[in-house]
Structures are given as structure tokens and as C-alpha cells.
Design goal:
By secondary structure, the protein is α/β, with parallel strands linked by helices. Helices cover 40% and strands 14% of the residues. Helix 6 links the parallel strand 3 and strand 4. It binds pyridoxal-5'-phosphate. The site of pyridoxal-5'-phosphate (PLP) has 14 residues, from helix 5.
């Protein structure tokens, strides 16, 4: 076999998997999320000051040496068994069918999304996703060269007629529908219970899998909204394969890199093999700490604290928006989660507003970041989770002033 030597210029023959536009967007987003001297509404992450540091100190200090040593070691690919057990109990309380399904612990729920995509998607396969969608998932689907078809949403979830007509339009069956029904990232909405059921009606017996991403359901602000967080996977009576994913990132800390997927045994088994090849197992150390956090019922009291903290931030942001935004800018007040999704008047685009705002040291995330086609740009995402409370009003005033000058 002959091949040509490259001389001074290095030629890398990259795989097609490296061409994800959304992955580039995430890099920029993360820079802005934590940029110094910036008022940042960009980061979809918890606030550092809210982490349960002393609880984790106490948990670690009380571990036996035996358990600590397990923490240093490799563990089963499926997960640290005590965590798998306790997590099953936690998911059972949400009404999830844990007996008919298997639970895989993953390195963040993004890894679960990655595993499922790797398991199901060949180049060119159709993935249906909400427009807008969580950008991390979009970058995974792009990496695996899926044909991502965005479907619009309203304040109650994905628009059912659009979902139906999209499915009918293609002669090729979509592999799965990816949605975030509870406290959507970026749209901030929660699906109505009726919309959750309607999705199952549409997918019933079609063979199209539903990928239900539930990273935020514990972060409702008011007890009366808890019933809305019912997982779609817990609704019975339909012939639909629902793969459910969740995460400790928003309810303990993203640095733990702990997520999970609950799926039927067949989906699970192939997924476990893929995970084995990816990273063998998720950090035992982190799983042990998270397990104790669950087992000692510390999660419940921590969630009570988080809900009031995020509610306070949401209130401050809502009031600032009411006070400063021109009436042409609209939004839905979130019932939980981390995000406001502002709708701009037609002739404005969020990228142009962003460029002006960053000059004034205020950042957010542009609408097009969350469009599967990276085009639609008449929205912007404001996250209140990672903000010091005293910067919210100042930041919104600046964004509103920029918008007014551009109208
Ligand atoms: C909707 C959604 N799903 C999944 C994730 C990923 O979470 P993890 O840190 O568990 O990978 C996020 C993180 O922002 C998210 O917003």
C-alpha cells in the first residue's frame, strides 16, 4: 500500500462526527456562563453558593474505610449497587415502572442521551425534537449524524398536530422523539398532563421510541404544581417504548457527573455494552456520596431549600421583566426549573441584541442556539439559577434598554 507523506502541513483526517455546530455553541455558552465581570443569565447551572458542601463533608467523614476504598476502585458498569437500589426507590415514588425496566447509572444524563443515540441512530436516521431543544442533546444527535427535525411547542408542550403531520410527512420512520416535558430547557414550560397523554396516543403502536429527558422535575416552585411533573413513562395503557433519563446535576451538583436511564431490558442491555466501551463505569466515589445523600434523606430537605431559593430568584427576574421590558417582549412565567424564554418582536433577533449586551457586560443565550437548524432567533434564554440575587434587576434593565434602542 502506498500513501503520500505530508510535509510541513499537518493533515488530520477527522471523522464526520466532529462537525457539530451546536457543540461549538456550547463552548461559547460555557465561556459566557462563568465569565468574570459579566452579569450572566447564560449558565444553566446551579449557583455555587447553594451546594450542600457541609452535608457532603459529613457524609464523607462518616464513611468507613472499607467504603472509601470501594470509592477508589472500578465498579460495575450498571452502577454502584446501593445507589441503583436507592435510586429505584426514588424513581418508584415518582410512579415510574421500575420492576419492568432496568436502571443504568451514567456519567451525567448527557451520557445517557449519548448512549441511546449511539444505540439507535445510523447516519441519516430521523430524530424528532422540540424546537427549541436542549442544545447538549442536539449536539449529540448531530455528532451521530442524525437528521434532526424540529417541531414547534406552545405553552403546554409540543404541538400535537405538528407532531402528527411531521411523522406522516416522512416515508422513513423516525427513530425517536426527544422531549423535555418538565421545566423545559430553554423554554421554561411544563407540559400539561393532557399533552403528555396525547404524545403517547400519537406514538402508540408506531414503533417510534420516546426519549423523555427529566432533569428538572424536582424543582417545582409550588407544591400544587407537583402533580404536573408526572413522568410520561409512568402513564399506562399505551404500546410505546419510553426511555427515561434523569440527573443529579440540578439537585446535587453537576460536578458529580451522575445521571441515569430507565429503559426496557433490551434497550438497557445494549446500552450497558456501549457504556462499558465508553468509560467502563461511572465514578464510584461520586456514586457513594450521592447514594448516602439519598439514603440519609438529605436530598428531600435540600430540595425544599433549593425550591425556595430558585423561587426567590424567579420572582426577582419576573418583577424586573415586568418593570423594564417593552410590552412587545413576551414570556411565560415558569412554574419551576431555571429558565425564562423571552419572545422578541418579529423584526428583532437575539444575536444582534446579544452583541450589544456583551459590550455592556451582560450575557444570555441566543434563541438560535436551541434551534435544531440553528436559525430561528426571535427568542432569548435567561437563566436565573446561577445569578447572585442582587444582579438580576441591574442586568434586566440593561437588556431591556438595549432592546428598546433596537425597536
Ligand atoms: C434538559 C437537560 N437535559 C440534560 C442535561 C444534562 O445534564 P447532565 O449534567 O446530567 O449531563 C441538562 C443540563 O443542562 C439539561 O438542561
Amino acid at each position: 500500500m502506498t500513501f503520500h507523506r505530508t510535509t510541513n502541513k499537518k493533515m488530520y483526517n477527522f471523522s464526520r462526527k466532529v462537525n457539530s455546530e451546536h457543540s461549538e455553541d456550547i463552548k461559547v455558552l460555557m465561556q459566557h456562563a462563568v465569565g468574570k465581570h459579566l452579569i450572566s443569565f447564560a449558565g444553566g447551572m446551579p449557583n455555587n453558593d447553594l451546594f450542600p458542601v457541609s452535608d457532603i463533608d459529613e457524609i464523607y467523614n462518616n464513611l468507613s474505610d472499607e467504603i472509601k476504598k470501594i470509592g477508589f476502585q472500578y465498579g460495575p458498569t450498571s452502577g454502584y449497587p446501593p445507589l441503583v437500589n436507592n435510586l429505584r426507590k426514588y424513581l418508584k415514588k415518582k410512579g415510574l415502572p421500575i420492576y419492568q425496566n432496568k436502571l443504568l447509572i451514567t456519567t451525567g444524563s448527557l451520557q445517557a442521551i449519548s448512549i441511546i443515540t449511539q444505540e439507535l441512530i445510523n447516519e441519516g436516521d430521523i430524530v424528532l425534537a422540540e424546537n427549541p431543544s436542549f442544545v447538549g442533546a442536539l449536539s449529540v444527535f448531530e455528532t451521530y449524524r442524525a437528521n434532526i427535525i424540529g417541531i414547534p411547542i406552545d405553552e403546554n408542550g409540543i404541538i400535537i398536530d405538528e407532531l402528527k403531520s411531521t411523522i406522516e410527512k416522512f416515508s422513513r420512520k423516525p427513530k425517536f422523539l426527544y422531549i423535555t416535558p418538565n421545566f423545559h430547557n430553554p423554554a421554561g414550560i411544563i407540559y400539561s398532563l393532557e399533552r403528555k397523554r396525547q404524545i403517547l396516543e400519537v406514538l402508540d403502536k408506531t414503533g417510534i421510541i420516546l426519549l423523555e429527558d427529566d432533569a428538572y422535575s424536582d424543582l417545582y416552585f409550588k407544591e400544587e404544581n407537583k402533580t404536573l411533573t408526572k413522568p410520561i413513562k409512568s402513564i399506562e395503557g399505551f404500546d410505546v417504548e419510553v426511555i427515561y433519563t434523569g440527573s443529579f446535576s440540578k439537585i446535587l451538583g453537576p460536578g458529580f457527573r451522575l445521571g441515569w436511564m430507565l429503559a426496557s431490558p433490551k434497550i438497557y442491555e445494549k446500552g450497558e455494552n456501549i457504556k462499558q466501551a465508553l468509560d467502563a463505569c461511572t465514578s464510584n466515589f461520586n456514586q457513594i456520596l450521592a447514594n448516602e445523600f439519598l439514603a440519609q434523606a438529605k436530598l428531600e430537605s435540600y430540595l425544599l431549600f433549593l425550591r425556595t431559593e430558585y423561587f426567590d430568584r424567579k420572582e426577582l427576574l419576573q418583577h424586573a421583566l415586568e418593570k423594564y421590558m417593552p410590552k412587545e417582549v413576551t414570556w411565560n412565567e415558569p412554574k419551576g426549573g431555571f429558565y425564562f424564554w423571552l419572545k422578541l418582536p418579529k423584526h428583532l433577533n437575539s444575536t444582534a441584541i446579544f452583541k450589544k449586551c456583551i459590550e455592556k457586560n451582560v450575557v444570555f443565550v441566543t434563541g438560535r442556539t436551541f434551534d435544531p437548524a440553528s436559525k430561528k432567533d426571535d427568542n432569548l434564554r435567561l437563566s436565573f439559577s446561577n445569578m447572585p440575587k442582587n444582579e438580576i434587576e441591574k442586568g434586566i434593565k440593561i437588556i431591556a434598554e438595549v432592546i428598546k434602542t433596537m425597536m
